[in-house]
Fold this sequence. Notes:
Blueprint (H helix, E strand, L loop, with lengths): L1 E5 L6 H12 L3 E3 H10 L3 H11 L6 H12 L7 E4 L5 H10 L4 E6 L2 H9 L1 E4 L5 E3 L18 E2 L6 H15 L1 H7 L4 E5 L7 H9 L3
Parallel strand pairs: 1-3, 1-4, 2-3, 4-8
Antiparallel strand pairs: 5-6, 5-7
Helix pairs in contact: 1-9, 2-3, 4-5, 6-7
Amino acid sequence: MRIVIFGPPGSGKGTYATILKNRLDIPHISTGDLVRDEIRHKTSIGKAIEEYSNSGKLVPDDIITAILEKRIRTTLQKGFILEGYPRSIEQAKQLDKMTRIDLVINLDVPDHVIVDRLSSRIQCKKCGAIYNERTMKPRLLGRCDKCSGELFKRVDDQPGVILERLKIYKETSAPVVDYYRTRGVLKDFRNEDPDSSPEVVVDRIMKLI
Ligand code: AMP
C-alpha cells in the first residue's frame, strides 16, 4: 500500500508512521528525516537547505522533490508510508508523477495541542525515535530507549519557529487536503484525546486502512 500521513507539524505524523511501519511491514519515508540526514552529514545539499530547515521554512520544491524521488524509487514495489511530503499542491502534483497514492490519512489536531507538543518534543539523533519531555519520557534521561542514542531538541521546535511553521502549514500545505479529497483517497482522523498513547491512536488509525 502507498500511504501518505498528512497533517500539521506536531500532529503525530512521525510517531504514528513509525508504529504503522512495523504493523504493516512497509518502509516509512519522512522527508523531514531525509532533510536532517543531509544536514547532519554536511552534504552539499545539506549545506544549501540548512537555513530553511532551521528557520521552519520550506526547502525549495526542486531540491526536496529530488531528495524524495531518490528514496521513493527504492520502495515502489513494497509500498510505503510517506510523511512530510507533499506540503503544497505543486508537490502533490510532483508525487502523482512519481507514483499512485492509495490512501491519505489527514490528522486533524487543534493549534494549542500542536504548540504544547512541539515545545516539549525530543528526538533520538541516531534512530529518529520521538519522545516528549512531559508525556512520553524516555526511561533514561537524555537517552533513547530503543538504541541508547543521544536525545536532542530540534532547532525548529523553538516557540517562534513553531508559529512560523504553523503559518506556512495553513497557507501552503492545508490546501493539499482538498486536492486529495476530490480524488476520493483522503480519510480524516481526529484525535479527541491528545494524551492518549500512540499505540492506542494507531489502533484507531488502522481501522481506516
Ligand atoms: P518535518 O520534520 O516534516 O517537520 O520537516 C522538517 C523541515 O524539513 C521542514 O520545516 C522543512 O524545512 C523541511 N521539509 C521537510 N519536508 C519538506 C517538504 N515536503 N517540502 C519542503 N520542505 C520540507
